[in-house]
Amino acid sequence: MYPLRRNRRLRTNDAIRHLVRETILTPSDFLVPLFVVEGKGIKEEIASMPDYYRLSLDNLEKEVKELWQMGLCAVLLFVKVPDNLKDNKGTEALNSNGLMQLAIKTVKNACPEMLVMTDVALDPYSSLGHDGIVQDGEVINDDTVEVLAEMSVSHAMAGADFVAPSDMMDGRILSIREALEDEGLVNTGIMSYSAKYASAFYGPFRDALDSAPVDMKNVPKDKKTYQMDSANRFEAITETQADIDEGADIVMIKPGLCYLDIVREIRNEVDVPIAVYQVSGEYAMLKAAAEKGWLDHDSVMMEQLISIKRAGANIIASYFAKDAVKLMG
Ligand code: PBG
């Protein structure tokens, strides 16, 4: 006897496939990472991230207007800080006229309704390329957290809607929340990089910001004492739960594709919105393969983004955001 159930019926043509499709990407799923540099008229392509650019403030203004027109309503800002402004404590991060603070104001002036999230970590400001302060060969936790809390207040005062701590220090969400409350910044949200793994996929990003750990005696050569071990699953839940208990509004898992099991696991455990960061190395891999003609860029990109959403992401931070929205038509 033929099977009563023929699963292929629901795949017969586009119309039925659309009708039963479970996951649909929309422009409002995306958070667009943007790299900002000092200067004027600058739009520099990042060598290991083809078609992705560092922008000076004037070009940042143009870019966010274009994003808004496309229906992309949220940006995540990163800054490339000149070497002469870097030190071990990331002092420049607290400059109320610093590049990040100016970038926040530029976006808000150009596009007042654009949701602005800012990266909070010391690495772009650190002369040693670490997310925290280095002391006696170690990245020290509590002193770093104090700077992160001040940095968050500074971003919020400049107009950031959300701060996004990407440093993985312990206890930083609570300290940031308290610092914001103390200043009356009760509406500033926190998107915590909760399960951030020590990943080799961040290479191109560190090129973009020139922020890799420096090769020096008494400076940790990698970020493994604070970012998570890629072998661990339960720890991701502990980290995420702790951040929620400390006051995180949104939690993030990072990188994306290799960690979709973690995304699903956390989706099943927690009720807050989940963001997934499809990181620079993931972007670079596809661009390189497509350039060689080995993969079809657009189809692979959409398959990856859909997979991230299907795994449980409510928000996708991706360098492909514009490309994807263009394909959505
Ligand atoms: C640093 C930070 C990194 C990324 C976001 N924030 C790099 C790192 O931890 O070394 C990576 C993003 C990407 O690779 O796209 N706090």
UniProtKB/TrEMBL annotation:
Keyword hit for Aminoacyl-tRNA synthetase: no
Record protein name field: Delta-aminolevulinic acid dehydratase
Pathway: Porphyrin-containing compound metabolism; protoporphyrin-IX biosynthesis; coproporphyrinogen-III from 5-aminolevulinate: step 1/4
Known EC number: 4.2.1.24
Active site: K196 (schiff-base intermediate with substrate), K254 (schiff-base intermediate with substrate)
Native organism: Aggregatimonas sangjinii
Catalytic activity: 2 5-aminolevulinate = porphobilinogen + 2 H2O + H(+)
Entry-linked SMART domains: ALAD
Positions that bind Mg(2+): E239
NCBIfam families: PRK09283.1
Coiled-coil residue windows: none
Gene3D superfamilies associated with the record: Aldolase class I (3.20.20.70)
GO cellular component, one term: cytosol
GO MF terms, alphabetically ordered: porphobilinogen synthase activity; zinc ion binding
